[in-house]
Amino acid sequence: MKTKLKLKPLSEWGLDNLDRPFLISGPCSAETEAQVLETAHALASQNISVFRAGIWKPRTRPNTFEGVGSDGLKWLSRVKEETGLKVATEVANAKHVYEALKHNIDVLWIGARTTVNPFAVQEIADALKGVDIPVFVKNPINPDLELWIGALERFNKSGITKLAAIHRGFSSYGDSAFRNAPNWQIPIELKRRFPELLIINDPSHIGGKRSLIKELSQKAMDLDFDGLMIEVHPNPDDAWSDSSQQINPGQFEELIRGLKIRSKGETQQKHSRLSGLRKKIDYFDHELMEILEARMKVACEIGEFKRDNNMVVLQNNRWNEVIEQSITLGNAKGLSPDLISKIFKAIHQESINNQTDIINKAIE
Ligand code: PEP
Ligand code: MN
Would you give the end-to-end CA distance of the chain in angstroms? Predict the structure, then answer.
């Protein structure tokens, strides 16, 4: 389903420091008034646009810190008074929205565990009718782009035009280098479908450990994300939530200073070398298409052979041979086993689908 979002440009959101990267930072959770104020003062001179602190924290497991609740709103008001920073907190139901609006919170974000639930999102969107506050919608915990878009649409239908998406990664089962797998193709596809939508990367929740934050932030910048949401705590190791992924204000400053912000290349786009290289890519894409077509025709002929000889479609030994042979060949050409196995699995799946159709058509 194709839809459009009605969005206001960032310059009309009433926020400051809009240079790329747009920065949202602050602790995972507001713990004490002193901790919130100390972090905010340390960040106030660092060109951030929005100070964040979670006061209602939906956690995966019970008996973990679930936030200080409404008391924290007064602390965020003090941050505004003392530093002039705009402040953001997470809301997960209508009551949170009313409380946050009563305390003049400037920006709201929707957590990943809320975006998954259309009823919860709708309840929040209804509570926001007529209030054009910026709303940042984190991706749902599962890699479902439509669910993410659905949440953005619900807010937009309620009249929210200052909308942004936050890419915080996706849950997966088993061990992984990341706390939440980035699946970069999902936010890239979101950007392709909604080019005007602001997309912020959250390397803290993707990485889950501070050693990964720099590399993830740089990658987000190179993929032309608009900004970053990064968790900052005065003493990260003592944080009451997400301690291993938070960095201190000094580390934050160093991180931002070290980022390479490359241009979108508008002037270089016209340059003949780049357009020459792109023509080459177009030529090879065309060649790939021809080869894929030819390969698929042969796969269909094999399907006819299997049909005529009453053979099953999947021949496991043959498939193992194809994948192993391709990985070895790819390796010799500097192509990663990951790429080769993804491409060949996709091609194989398509061949199997075609062969299954051929065999079953014979039965009909
Ligand atoms: C957070 O921002 O602290 C948080 C809990 O994030 P997420 O919803 O991405 O898990
Ligand atoms: Mn957190």
Answer: 33
Phi, psi dihedrals of residue 251, rounded to the nearest 5°:
-65, -35
The 10 Å CB-count burial string (b at 16+, else e) for 14-43 is: ebeeeeebbbbbbbbbbbebebbbbbbebb
Q: Is 138 in the pocket of ligand 1 (CB under 6 A)?
A: yes
* pLDDT 10s digits, 62-106: 888 999 999 999 999 999 999 999 999 999 999 999 999 999 999
Segment 127-168, tens digit of pLDDT? 999 998 999 999 999 999 999 999 999 999 999 999 999 999
Give residue 111 CA to ligand 1 midpoint distance, Å: 5
Pocket test residue of 50, 57, 68, 90 for ligand 1, highest count of atoms within 8 A of CB: 90
- The CATH number fitting domain 10-258, selected from 3.30.70.3460, 3.20.20.70, 3.90.650.10, 3.40.1380.10: 3.20.20.70
Query: What number of CA atoms fall less than 13 Å from residue 106's CA on the CB side?
Result: 20
Please report which confidence band the pLDDT of residue 364 belongs to, taking 50, 70 and 90 as the band edges.
low
Is the CB of 191 within 6 Å of ligand 1?
no
Q: What sign does the CA torsion over 264, 267, 269, 273 have?
A: negative
* CA of residue 114 to ligand 1 center, whole Å: 10
Beta carbon of 28 within 6 Å of any ligand 1 atom:
yes
Ligand 2 centre distance from Cα of residue 242 (Å): 5
User: Cα(223) to centroid of ligand 2, in Å?
Assistant: 23
Around Cβ 192, how many Cβ atoms within 10 Å?
9
Which tokens hold the place of 9? 């440009």
CATH architecture, range 268-363: Up-down Bundle (1.20)
pTM, whole model, 2 decimals?
0.87
| Cβ burial, residue 75 (10 Å; 0-12/13-18/19+) | buried
| Residues 211/226, Cβ–Cβ less than 8 Å | no
